[in-house]
Write a structure and sequence with these properties.
The chain has a domain of about 100 residues. It is about 70% helix and about 0% strand. The protein has nine helices and no strands. It is elongated and about 120 Å long.
């Protein structure tokens, strides 16, 4: 005695009665309240101000980047013993031109000797040993420049690089 199997409760007529679930409206990406719009505007203004100040600083520091690039070229020439004397003279000239790039000519161009070393010391601690060597390569004869040891020349290059990268302009 087997009992007949009855049909399932979900018949095609029941499936026709089913409807899709109502989904909520998608969440908008744009803020809905005025407060968030104000916060967004302030953040945009701050980001623009930071970008503008960074761009201005980058433009103002261009002379440093150019001077450091020229110093790198001079440093490679200093490594060659035959080109050391003219390269050391170019190094002294580079320091003066770098100072002239940011300060009025009246304040920097006339500086020489102890006054020039004092200026380098005041603007970023150019040490006395490097200063004495700078005086030698600036005002000494070419034979003395050619006799400068490689280690001393490298110390002068390092002092010049430090001064170019970190000097503070006097106002």
């Amino acid at each position: 005695m087997s009992t007949p199997i009855s049909a399932p409760a979900n018949t095609p007529a029941d499936l026709q009665a089913l409807r899709e679930l109502a989904l909520p409206a998608p969440v908008p990406y744009w803020p809905q309240t005025v407060g968030w719009l104000i916060v967004l505007a302030l953040l945009l203004a701050v980001a623009l101000a930071i970008a503008w100040f960074a761009w201005r600083r980058h433009r103002k520091q261009r002379y440093r980047r150019l001077a450091l690039a020229e110093l790198a070229s001079i440093a490679t020439r200093i490594g060659d013993g035959a080109q050391r004397a003219p390269a050391l003279a170019d190094l002294a000239s580079l320091l003066k031109r770098t100072a002239l790039a940011v300060l009025p000519r009246e304040r920097v161009a006339a500086l020489s000797g102890a006054a020039w070393l004092d200026f380098l010391q005041r603007t970023h601690g150019f040490d006395a040993q490097s200063g004495a060597l700078l005086m030698l390569v600036s005002y000494g004869p070419e034979s003395q420049r050619a006799a400068v040891a490689s280690a001393d020349a490298q110390r002068l290059v390092d002092a010049a690089r430090d001064w170019i990268a970190h000097h503070h302009v006097e106002i």
